Amino acid sequence: LLFGFHESGVVDMSNDQLATALMESKQQIKIFDEIEAVGENPPSEDISVSHYGQTPVVAVFNVEGPAGSIYEGGHFQVEITFNPGYPFKLPSVKFLTRIFHINVFTQVDGTGHFRHLEELWDSRWNMFMLLEHIVGLMTNAKLSYLPPHVYETVFMYMNESKTPLESLDVFDEE
Q1: Which of 6, 130, 146, 157 has CB 3.0 to 4.6 Å from 10, enough for a Cys bridge?
Q2: Span 35-56, mean pLDDT?
Q3: CA separation for the pair 98, 89 (Å, rounded)
Q4: Averaged pLDDT for residues 74-89
């Protein structure tokens, strides 16, 4: 058998390597299908698939700075790592290219991470929606996605510099 039964009637496949491998390969095929769908019909003309593979699946996307944004003309790479449990678990998302953006937290190694995704992620999201979200943020940053202490710091700066928030057209205060 590929699995065992507990007295409670629950199926247990955690100790069977073949069952685990079959489940992971099915998940991997689903992720590959999503990547190929994004390659054929990207959420934006600014996105293309660079490469993908490995276990867990790692996909790298090229993102051109959206027209009309402060990133216009820039070339960025976004890496998405699909850990076991996707889409029920958030994939790891980071910019491989250094980017200065209020919703992207830059790490010491220069990569940028999206902390707010932990709160937004829903199992109904897919790769298309995730990439669409990233490009959308490059056009309109969202102050509401900031952790409270950072949000307060931004507003303290705005008040001290007497710069009205409305004058900064890159922000959307949703």
Answers
A1: 6
A2: 93
A3: 26
A4: 92
* CA 146 to the chain's CA centroid: 16
Give dist(CA 41, CA 84) in Å, integer: 25
Residues 6+ apart with CB under 8 A from 163: none
Report the 10 Å Cβ neighbour count for 9: 6
Once rounded to an integer, what is the mean pLDDT over residues 30-51?
94
Of residues 45, 123, 117, the one with CA closest to residue 80 = 117
pTM: 0.75
Cα 43-48-53 angle, rounded to 5 deg: 110
The answer to whether 108 and 93 are in contact (CB under 8 A) is no
The runs of H, that is alpha helices, within 2-144 are 17-40, 117-120, 127-139
Tell how far CA 48 is from the center of its chain: 15
Are the C-beta atoms of 34 and 123 separated by less than 8 Å?
Answer: no
Q: Where are the alpha helices (DSSP H) in 41-140?
A: 117-120, 127-139
Q: What is d(CA 104, CA 114) in angstroms, rounded to the nearest whole number? A: 5
pLDDT in tens, 102-136: 888 888 887 888 888 988 999 999 999 999 999 99
